[in-house]
Write a structure and sequence with these properties.
688 residues, alpha+beta, Rhopdopsin 7-helix transmembrane proteins, Jelly Rolls, Heat Shock Protein 90, 5-stranded mixed β-sheet, elongated, disordered C terminus
């Protein structure tokens, strides 16, 4: 288990390599063009009905060409390139301005018979015209320099052709940091291309549905959980992920809307910013320099929204600054969340392992995105996109664990509060009994004086036989009046006295054997460290379950046997009682409550035992109709005693790592009075 984070990092890199080779237009099998010509004969089309047009494009830099320019004296291309080779119109010359125009041309030789083909074009930045066999087939914006108007979008063109297809794309860009055609188009038979597109859209829709479902669950959970803010922030993160993942779907439905890429930037930046914010809350750590990074993330999100409306696209300097800001923020945020995870792992605070695995997945994906830039997915998403999806899912798992832990701690605190309340009730009931016994003692003293006078008179008169008979009768009365004591531990003694009375009222044979040290709860080496409240909660839940099970029995002998003993190894509590109604939950066997449903008292017992590094096991003998529970709490070691002493001193000094980060309400740490006070209202309902 110690190698789990490292294993996930390796798996992330392996998954990226697998996707790069198996789901990538650049590495897909199939014919490629050479010298501006792609040959697709009958056999080739049968083997590869879908072809990704990557290599062999004619590249005419700085020219907006039309089919008429190739009618008589075709211009010679400046180079034959693969799509994505440069990404900018300066053709790799970083001293030149990237803006400008360019034309891409490709000839495809086909079978002689007429067939229907599909050409699927990705986003081409930022305005272009598409010509197929000399005719204009599609356009976005206006690529003419004098009347330039940017528009981008996905485009699918279906056409009939035979023998030869000439594809000419004339593009102009003055609004984007990337220029022209940077992703390979798709060409092939219509049905085959449509099938690939449908699978890609189904995967996208499935990812969106998962993200939206997680958002809905988080929002609902946040409304009924103490971790309201964390759950709502996670729901917002899922919504941003769904919007980011749906970008290709929205782009295909809303082609021509230029500023949709700003929404993609915003949602991606928002996922990272919310990750940084949620990290602080989940880890429960207080780091002074974490706030500037979170503020930076929020500022970048605001800039990504404002930029399309406030900053002119024609200003190259602002575009370069914005591009570098987004790229730098992406890697800076990844470094920050990784460093936060390392700090939390060193401090051993919060839900470390799940988030650390997710963060290492993101780190591996970002590194592979830089090492393998020629990755254009066919079906799935890009490396950072899939990593963000995995990150959000893992954060959801971590938050679910925190909520489950919070609920368990709340149930345990409720049981403790109920135990304390029950103990207080027993003490109030026991006080009149003490007063009554005090009166009995006074009466016994008077009787003792009377008996002494009577015996003295018999002794003086020499009636020795009568005296011995008198003493014998007096000894029998003393034994009958003797009060049974079960334990030197006050909490155990009070509960035993109360349930002895309840057992008599309900015709149940109750046998109790307590051998408990008075300092059983001392927080030092050699003792269990269990508090009277927790000991009361353990015994109370066991006796409650046993008594209720006996009361529900309509036939058979009712009995309860409870023993508790301390020795050098620790505390051992064993309960056996007759029972008829049980509920099977997997391999667990638990008694039903008064409504015939699964109760939660035994869950609270397990939680309390776990807090003291103990165990709680329960079983049911169907033949004998006997329910058995065994609880073992070991003695504290020297290291454990020292650790508890340190925690107690920190609690007394008022140190709370969640004060500034706002995680006190979310993590529901065991802070003694606060936990019990919050659970006090549920004390009567959480046991059953």
């Amino acid at each position: 288990m110690a190698l789990l984070p490292e294993l996930f990092c390796v798996l992330s890199i392996f998954a990226c390599l697998l996707l790069f080779n198996a789901d990538n237009k650049y590495t897909s099998e199939g014919p490629q063009a050479r010298g501006g010509v792609l040959l697709l004969d009958e056999q080739t089309i049968g083997s590869y009905p879908v072809v990704y047009l990557v290599n062999g494009w004619e590249y005419h830099n700085g020219k907006l060409l039309t089919p008429a320019d190739f009618a008589r004296n075709p211009p010679r291309p400046d180079a034959y390139v693969f799509i994505g080779q440069h990404g900018r119109f300066n053709a790799g010359d970083f001293t030149a301005a990237p803006d400008g125009s360019a034309s891409y041309r490709l000839n495809i030789l086909l079978p002689d018979e007429v067939r229907v083909y599909t050409l699927e074009l990705p986003e081409i930045y930022s305005a272009y015209k598409l010509y197929i066999n000399g005719r204009e087939a599609a356009s976005f914006g206006d690529p003419a320099p004098d009347s330039y108007r940017p528009e981008t979008g996905l485009k699918t063109v279906i056409f009939e052709a035979r023998s030869r297809v000439e594809i000419l794309i004339a593009a102009t860009d003055g609004s984007h940091i990337l220029n022209g055609m940077v992703n390979p188009p798709v060409f092939g038979e219509t049905e085959a291309v449509a099938a690939v597109t449908a699978i890609r859209m189904i995967i996208r829709v499935a990812m969106c549905v998962v993200a939206l479902t997680a958002a809905l669950i988080a929002i609902i959970a946040g409304m009924f959980s103490r971790m309201k803010l964390s759950a709502l922030l996670y729901g917002l993160m899922c919504l941003c992920l769904a919007a980011y993942t749906s970008y290709p779907i929205v782009r295909s439905l809303m082609s021509g809307v230029y500023h949709l890429h700003a929404a993609a930037d915003f949602t991606f930046c928002a996922v990272l910013a919310l990750t940084m914010l949620l990290q602080t809350r989940i880890y429960g750590t207080k780091i002074k320099w974490s706030r500037p990074f979170i503020i930076l993330g929020l500022l970048v999100c605001i800039i990504s929204v404002v930029r399309p409306f406030a900053l002119p696209d024609g200003n190259l300097t602002l575009r370069v600054i914005y591009f570098n800001l987004i790229a730098g923020y992406k890697y800076l945020a990844a470094a920050y969340i990784t460093l936060m995870a390392i700090i939390a792992a060193v401090k051993k605070t919060g839900n470390i392992r799940t988030l650390l695995c997710a963060i290492l997945i993101v780190d591996g994906a970002l590194v592979m995105d830089r090492l393998l830039p020629l990755h254009d997915p066919i079906l799935a998403g890009s490396f950072p996109e899939l990593a963000c999806f995995a990150l959000v899912i893992c954060i959801g798992i971590a938050i679910c664990k925190e909520i489950a832990g919070s609920v368990a701690r709340k149930a345990t605190a409720a049981e403790r509060a109920r135990g304390v309340e029950k103990l207080s009730d027993v003490q109030r009931i026991y006080y009149p009994l003490v007063q009554y016994k005090n009166e009995e003692v006074k009466a016994a003293l008077l009787d003792l004086r009377r008996h002494a006078d009577e015996m003295a008179e018999l002794l003086d008169s020499g009636q020795y036989t009568t005296l011995w008979e008198y003493i014998g009768k007096l000894d029998g009365k003393v034994h009958e009046a003797r009060q049974v004591g079960y334990s030197s531990n006050e909490a155990a003694e009070l509960l035993a006295q109360q349930y002895i009375l309840l057992a008599k009222e309900n015709d149940t044979e109750l046998t109790i054997s307590f051998k408990l040290d008075g300092d059983i709860g001392a927080s030092d080496e050699g003792n269990t460290g269990i508090s009277d409240a927790d000991l009361c909660a353990l015994l109370l839940n066991l006796l409650d379950k046993a008594m209720n099970a006996c009361i529900r029995m309509e036939e058979g002998d009712r009995f309860i046997t409870l023993s508790a003993e301390t020795d050098e190894a620790g505390l051992t509590i064993k309960l056996e009682n007759s029972a008829t109604g049980v509920i099977r939950a997997g391999d667990d066997i638990v008694p039903a409550n008064a409504r015939g449903q699964k109760g939660y008292g035994l869950d609270a017992i397990k939680a309390i035992a776990g807090r003291y590094n103990g165990t709680a096991e329960f079983s049911f003998d169907e033949t004998r109709q006997v329910f058995t529970g065994v609880i073992i709490l070991p003695v504290m070691t020297e290291q454990k005693a020292e650790a508890d002493s340190v925690e107690d001193s920190e609690a007394d000094s008022g140190t709370d790592s969640d004060t500034d980060s706002g995680t006190d309400a979310d993590t529901d740490t065991d802070s003694g009075t606060d936990t019990e006070a919050d659970a006090g209202t549920d004390a009567g309902t959480d046991t059953e």
